[in-house]
Design a protein that fits this description.
The chain is of the alpha/beta class and about 270 residues long. It contains eight helices and nine strands.
């Protein structure tokens, strides 16, 4: 059973007007080819994905199957060769301009000469006219990610996990409706990574965001997700979509349950066929 976030989560973006509610993420027949002087490489082929609002979807697959390429296409960072994508009913570029998308990558990419609070707020200075109304201030956002007492610290004073929390707060500063995350914990040690997935679960539940996460970790995908997409390739294509019917809220004990172990085993089996 899925416990839905409250109708107006404390950090949620305002819904778009209109009687019909579009899918948060709608990917239709998307393909992407890269060309050079002598060859054409198809990275992604005929991918279809739909993510409803407030849902958490993870994408897993072997290295080189096009996971990161697909995420960047969804976010409007790369143009598809074929197919279409909408974010809350808008093309990705338009959603970017409205600051409806928050990005978190493996490298936190913090500016070393700025403090934590300054790193979080730096993007507010870009295209200020498109800034969303901010129902909460930056300090409340830092409190959400557990960094309020480090607001005046510099990046070199933070651990890797703390730096990724700053990156997450920076992604949330515009109160986007969508979070796109590309291996955000991939550079962390195993213990920190295990801790951070439950922090992300807490924050995603609290904010009611729609999340699309690329990960290599089966455990991470099962713990966090409502659905897990297994990509095979190259070219990247959807091998299978697995619905994760585990009760919420979830905590560390879920990883000892027979249901968790069964989902992890199922996903390993699908990956072997990729």
């Amino acid at each position: 059973m899925l416990i839905q976030p409250p109708s107006t989560p404390p950090f949620a973006a305002t819904d778009l007007p209109g009687s019909a509610t579009p899918r948060a993420i709608d990917v239709r027949h998307v393909s992407k080819s890269f060309h050079d002087a002598n060859s054409v490489f198809e990275a992604v082929h005929d991918v279809n994905l739909q993510v409803d609002r407030g849902r958490f979807m993870s994408v897993i697959g072997l290295s080189g199957c096009g996971k990161s390429t697909l995420l960047r296409i969804v976010g409007g960072l790369i143009e598809p060769t074929e197919g279409s994508i909408t974010i809350d009913g808008l093309p990705p570029k338009a959603a970017q301009k409205q600051k409806s998308i928050g990005f978190v990558f493996q490298d936190a990419a913090l500016l070393p000469w700025l403090t934590v609070v300054e790193n979080v707020e730096v993007s507010l200075q870009v295209n200020q006219r498109a800034n969303r109304p901010r129902p909460r201030g930056t300090d409340e956002l830092l409190d959400l990610v557990g960094l309020l007492r480090f607001r005046n610290a510099f990046p070199h004073q933070l651990s890797g996990g703390m730096q990724q929390r700053v990156a997450l707060a920076r992604a949330l500063v515009h109160y986007p409706s969508i979070l796109l995350m590309d291996e955000p914990f991939g550079a962390l040690d195993e213990l920190t990574r295990a801790f951070m997935r439950y922090e992300l679960l807490r924050i995603a539940t609290r904010t009611g965001k729609t999340v699309l996460l690329v990960t290599h970790s089966i455990a991470e995908a099962v713990v966090l997700s409502d659905e897990v997409v297994v990509l095979a390739g190259p070219p990247g294509h959807v091998r299978e979509v697995v619905s994760i019917d585990l009760p919420r809220p979830r905590d560390e004990s879920i990883e000892r349950s027979p249901e968790f172990l069964a989902y992890a085993s199922l996903l390993r089996g699908v990956l072997k066929l990729s």
